[in-house]
Amino acid sequence: MTKNLGKVLRNYVDGEFVISNHSFNNINPVNGQMVCRVSEADKDIVDRAVKSARKALHGEWGNMDVSERCKILNALADEIERRFDDFVAAEVADTGKSYSQVKNIDIPRGAANFRVFADLIKTRPPQSFEMDTADGKSATSYVVNKPIGVVAVVSPWNLPLLLMTWKVAPALASGNTVVVKPSEETPSTATLLAEVMQNVGVPKGIYNLVHGFGPNSAGEFLVGHEDVDCVTFTGESKTGTAIMQSAARDLKPVSFELGGKNAAIIFADADFDAAIAGTVRSVFTNCGQVCLCSERVYVERPIFDKFVAALKERAEEIKIGRPQDGSDMGPLISTKHRKKVLSYFSLALEEGASLITGGKVPEFGDERDNGSFIEPTIWTGLPEDARCIKEEIFGPVCHIAPFDREEEVVGYANDTNYGLAAAIWTKDSSKADRVGRQMEVGICWINDWFLRDLRTPFGGVKLSGIGREGGMHSLDFYSEPLTICVKH
Ligand code: NAD
Question: Whose CA is nearest to atom 14 of ligand 1?
Answer without folding.
Answer: 214
